[in-house]
Amino acid sequence: MDLSVVSLAWFREFHRVRRCLPPGPRRPVSNVSVKFSVRMDEIPSLTSSSKVEITGSFNGWKVRVPLTLSLNKDKFETSISLSPGTYTYKYVIDNTQWVISPEVPSANDGTGVINNIVNVLPPPSVADDE
Predict the structure, then answer these.
(1) Domain count of the fold of the chain
(2) At 73, which CATH number?
């Protein structure tokens, strides 16, 4: 027999056996720190004395995370640790006004409510292994 025929037959057999094995344990996907920020000029009613919070599908819309004013006082910002996935969110200004940032992608949820969207990708080390 030719060596190429034998090696091809073994190659096919190894792959057949591999497909029969159960999948190995998956490593848990680590969270990614996502920075959220809104500039003063993005929302007309926003001032440096405003109380700005963020909430969204990443926390079931139940918890409001405060944003802090940046050192040069041109934006409010915070970082939230999120697992990979797609999330919708809104900013809450002074406990009364729910707004989106026009500078960030947004979508209609089908009921007429428009929310900002963030797509969190897995860290490169996890994505490269799969």
Answers:
(1) 1
(2) 2.60.40.10
